[in-house]
Write a structure and sequence with these properties.
Structural class: alpha+beta
InterPro entries: PABS, PEX11, SAM-dependent_MTases_sf, Spermidine_synt_N, Spermidine_synt_N_sf
Number of helices: 6
Order of helices and strands: HHHHHEEEEEH
Function: Involved in peroxisomal proliferation. Promotes peroxisomal duplication, aggregation or elongation without fission.
GO cellular component, one term: peroxisomal membrane
Strand order of the largest sheet: 1-2-3-4-5
Pfam families: PEX11 (PF05648), Spermine_synt_N (PF17284)
Membrane topology: Multi-pass membrane protein
Largest sheet: 5 strands, antiparallel
Number of domains: 2
Strand content: 15-25%
Length: 203
């Protein structure tokens, strides 16, 4: 028996065991999408049910990617047309990848796995800046941009807009001092000055 046959047999046993969670996942899916429709993205009980059920479904789908991985490496029935074989294998590959990444999302939300936020500098080829995410404080989407606020291990609270870091607790003084000191240098006695911004200056 080859190594591939042994892997198929072991994955087949795992599939039989993991299939028992299918019914519970379907019930949670109905509750999740029903509460999502009722909440209309507004804070409240329905939205809380939606979020908690979404996390519960991720628990029920633990290691479910094994099912599609098993189907991906298993031989197809003799006589199956090649286009159907390719479609089936593509489906198995995509689903197994999605479900595996779904496990990573669940681990990060529970705090078991702490992800890193990486910002690639397009102006500096070959460089990237990363921060370890300890806890996500806010994740939302406005009419104009995606908003993320998280607690990092070294920079404190971090504000991110459209996956671009705007400021952090550790270095926010750099921005404030630069926009404050330069105008103050143009004043003869900057002891007590009020900063009045014209509304046309605000983007």
């Amino acid at each position: 028996m080859s190594t591939l046959d042994v892997a198929r047999a072991e994955l087949g046993l795992a599939v039989l065991y993991l299939n028992k969670a299918e019914a519970r996942d379907k019930i949670c899916r109905a509750i999740q999408y029903g509460s999502k429709y009722l909440s209309n993205r507004e804070p409240g009980t329905a939205q809380n049910v939606d979020k908690s059920t979404s996390l519960a479904r991720k628990v029920f789908r633990l290691f479910k990617f094994v099912n599609d991985l098993h189907a991906l490496i298993s031989p197809t029935s003799p006589g199956t047309p090649l286009p159907l074989v390719l479609l089936g294998k593509s489906k198995n590959a995509l689903l197994s990848t999605f479900l595996f990444l779904d496990q990573i999302v669940w681990l990060s939300r529970t705090g078991i796995y702490k992800p890193w936020l990486s910002q690639f500098e397009f102006s500096l080829v070959g460089e990237a800046h990363s921060m370890k995410v300890e806890k996500i404080l806010c994740k939302d989407k406005s009419e104009y941009q995606e908003i993320l606020v998280f607690e990092s291990s070294t920079y404190g609270k971090v504000l991110v807009l459209d996956v671009i870091v705007q400021l952090t607790e550790k270095d926010e003084c750099v921005y404030q001092e630069m926009i404050t000191y330069l105008p103050l240098c143009s004043i003869q006695s900057p002891k007590n000055q009020n900063c009045n911004f014209h509304k046309s200056w605000v983007p």
